[in-house]
Structure formats: C-alpha cells, structure tokens
Design goal:
The structure is a single chain. With 136 residues, the chain is of the alpha/beta class. The protein has one domain: Rossmann fold, CATH 3.40.50. 35% of the residues lie in helices and 23% in strands. The protein is built from six helices and six strands. It has helices at 21-27, 31-43, 66-73, 84-87, 103-114, 131-134, and strands at 12-16, 46-47, 52-54, 77-79, 91-99, 119-127. The chain has a four-stranded parallel beta sheet, with helices on both faces. Strands 3-4 form a two-stranded antiparallel sheet. Strand 5, helix 5 (103-114) and strand 6 (119-127) form a beta-alpha-beta unit. Helix 3 (66-73) packs parallel to helix 5. It starts with 11 loop residues before the first strand and ends with a helix.
Length: 136
C-alpha cells in the first residue's frame, strides 16, 4: 500500500475510519487504525487515530444496500471537536479496511471537508466489487 502513496510524508495527516466506542470495546481494536499506523509511521506522517469520531452507534451495515447504508450513517461521523483546527487546509489520507458501497467513506470525507481539509485521499485495503456478494 505504501508504494501506492509515494506522496505521503510528514506534511500529511493519516486518519482511520472510526468505530463507535461500543464496537471498539467489543472488538478490542480498530482494524483501520492498525492499518493507518502501518502507513503513517514509515513515512513520518502524523497519525490521528481519534481525528474522526462516530457520534452514534449504528447497526452492522452488512446486507444493506447503498441507500440504506447512507441513511444509516447520516450524522454518525464527524471530526473530533478538539481537532477541528488541525484539519483546516490539511492534506489527509483516510484509511479504511474494506469499502463496500462507499457510504462510510463518503461520510468521513464529508466531515473532513466540512472541517476545512484541502485534500482527502482514500487508502482502502479491500474493495467489494459486487455488493450482492457481500450480503451472502
């Protein structure tokens, strides 16, 4: 993945897709955060594991179509209020483990742009090409 991000350096922020605190507690870790560490550290980029937060717990998105996913995530992700100023004019790499419909990514990018991020690049480690396959 690092080879696909040759521009990533100390001038970039690396932000993982957030989990709600209850899901984090159940799982014990945020897989996107672990992946983000692996991207940020070798390049000296600034890792912000709490840059985005989930403001509400959402049910699992598995089996939902794109419209239902987007509706479920409406208002669920925002920039951490303590870090809003950090994103003004920033270049951000948003790290996600798996992208299905893009609804989560879209919600994250929207929050980052609203906070003033100049550029957001998506680093996704797996992509579901056919949503029908992910529902089975």
């Amino acid at each position: 993945m690092l080879a696909r991000l040759p521009f990533l350096d100390e001038h970039w922020l690396v932000v993982p897709v957030p989990l709600h605190r209850w899901r984090l507690w159940q799982r014990g870790y945020n897989q996107s955060s672990e992946l983000a560490k692996g991207l940020a550290r070798p390049r000296g980029a600034r890792l912000l594991p709490e840059g985005l937060i989930r403001t509400k717990s959402t049910p699992s998105l598995g089996g939902l179509g794109a419209v239902a996913r987007k509706r479920t995530l409406s208002g669920a992700i925002r920039v951490n209020p303590r870090m809003t100023a950090t994103f003004k004019g920033a270049q951000v790499v948003l790290v996600d483990d798996v992208m299905t419909s893009g609804a989560t990514t879209e919600a994250c990018v929207s929050a980052l742009k609203k906070a003033g991020a100049k550029r957001v690049v998506i680093a996704c480690f797996a992509r579901v090409l056919d949503e029908a396959l992910s529902a089975t």
